[in-house]
Amino acid sequence: MNTIFKERKIVSRLFAVLLSALLMVPLLSSCGGGSQKASVPPPVDDSVGRTVSDRQTEAKKGLGTGQKVALLAGAAALYYMYNQHKNAPQEGAQGKYYLSKNGRVYYRDAEHRAHWVTPPTEGIRVPESEAQKYRQFQGYNGSATGRDLTGITSSAAPAL
Q1: What 3-state class would DSSP assign to 110?
Q2: Burial code of 59-84, b = ≥16 C-beta within 10 A, e = fewer?
Q3: Model-level pTM greater than 0.85?
Q4: How deeply is 96 buried, as exposed, middle or buried, from its count of CB atoms within 10 A (0-12, 13-18, 19+)?
Q5: pLDDT digits (tens, 9 = 90+) for 79-121
Q6: Do the strands 44-45 and 114-116 form a parallel or antiparallel pair, or are they unpaired?
Q7: pLDDT tens digits, 58-78
Q8: Residue 76: which of 156, 144, 154 has the closest Cα?
Q9: Across 7-158, where does the E strand assignment appear?
C-alpha cells in the first residue's frame, strides 16, 4: 500500500507543476517583444474644430475683380481638395490625399495615421472655368442635389 501512495504523490506533484507552467504561459507571452512590425493606428476625424483651408485663402488671393467664381461646398469642395492634393509628394495635411471606398477623403500623417478631411463650412471660391468639372457634385454653388464621392475611387488607396 505504501507504493501506491508514493505513486499518487509523484503524479500529483507532476500535475501541479504542469498546471503552474500552463498558468505562466499568458504572463510570459505578454512580456515578449511583440511583433517587429508596428500596427497602424486608427483613423482620426479632424472635422471638429477645423479652420479655414489654405487652399481657400490662396484661391481668394488669386481671383481678379472681373473673374467669375463658383462656390464649392460639401462633396464638390471635398473632391476639389482631393484633386489638388492627390499627386503631392509629401505626407500630412498639405501632402497627398486619398479617396476611400466609402466616399471620404483622407491623408496620412508622419505616423501613417489616417486623418479624415472635411471641407470648410463656408465653401471654397474657385474660378468658374475650373469649377465646371465639379458641377455634378453636391455643394456646387450651394446646390443640395447631385452625387457624392462614393464609387469614384480611381486608384488603389492604402488600407485604413
Answers
A1: coil
A2: beeeeeeeeebbbbbbbbbbbbbbeb
A3: no
A4: middle
A5: 888 888 888 888 888 888 888 888 888 888 888 888 888 888 8
A6: parallel
A7: 444 444 556 788 888 888 888
A8: 144
A9: 44-45, 69-72, 97-99, 105-108, 114-116, 124-127
| Residue 124 DSSP SS3 | strand
Q: How confident is the model over 9-32, as pLDDT tens digits?
A: 888 888 888 888 888 877 777 665
Nine-digit cell string for 137: 457634385
Spatial strand order of the sheet with 114-116 comes to 44-45, 114-116, 105-108, 97-99
In this structure, what DSSP letter does residue 138 have? T
The CA distance from 140 to 132, in Å, is 9
